[in-house]
Amino acid sequence: MSFSSATACCCSSSSAHSYATASSSSSKNRGGTNKTSTSLRQKSRSVTRAVKVAADAETAENTTTTTNTSAAPEAASSAAASVSSAAAATTEKPEPELKSDMGVDYAPFRDLLKSGEWEKADDEHRRLMCVLAGEDAEDREWVYFTEVKNMPVTDLKTVDALWSHFSGGRYGFAIQRKLWVAQKRNWAKFFKKIDWTTGENGDYRKFPNEFLWRADAAPGHMPLTNALRGTQLFEALMEHPAFAPPKTAAEIQAEELAKVQDQVTGAVSRAQGEFGDLMRKGLKGLKKPDWMS
């Protein structure tokens, strides 16, 4: 109850007492004071109503205060729950395990990605590709496309998982393959999609300083794979079992049939060549008939 409400109630009670006293003192002359008594009764009723209104106002104020007080903890609890949910949603996923079938240490590569040193991480990635391809690739410091099949699935998945984890799913072989397939395996469109081209003419980025070594480059912008001398290496990586879905029975059958056709074509070609050689050798030892002279 507020201070002003209390004052109003006290004043109203005092007025009621005054009017009651005045009515009692005038009872000696009842006939001449009927009108005055009626007036006093009316005023008393008014005062009573005023007191009731003030009491109702006090009750309403107390109820509102109680409701607001009880609602405050609920609102605070709801806000805390929202903050807690948001924090849980932004909790980082655990780092990928550094699995390797070849005993390769991926910790230096992981640390470079974690610190956002994208160019150095890409250099380390290229070195790792040579390690996974075999000793010959390590010696020459570049990978030949036929060596990709030697790379273990486990190791390629580890390398790709690290790219994906520290870039928020932006970089890695898996996202590159997804974009490549979305462009219907059209290399020109794919390179444009991952921002490996510049200018209106779509000139290819060739040198390291032309690429964008930052966290917000186009999806699929990293890692780099040299495609200036052809796309065979890139395609071999994209179709590696670590990233490509398992082939269907029909696809496997079609590949086997194509191999048989290639073998038959090669055999026929070799037979034709051998027959030609025999014919030429045989003709050299023959003399022309007299009638042809």
Automatic annotation (TrEMBL):
Residues 28-47 have a biased composition (Polar residues). GO terms for cellular component: chloroplast. Signal peptide: none annotated. GO terms for molecular function: tetrapyrrole binding. It holds the Pfam family GUN4. Residues 9-78, 83-102 are annotated as: Disordered. InterPro entries: GUN4-like, GUN4-like_sf. Residues 9-27, 54-78 have a biased composition (Low complexity). One of its GO terms (biological process) is chloroplast-nucleus signaling pathway. Residues 92-102 have a biased composition (Basic and acidic residues). This is GUN4-like domain-containing protein. It comes from Bathycoccus prasinos.
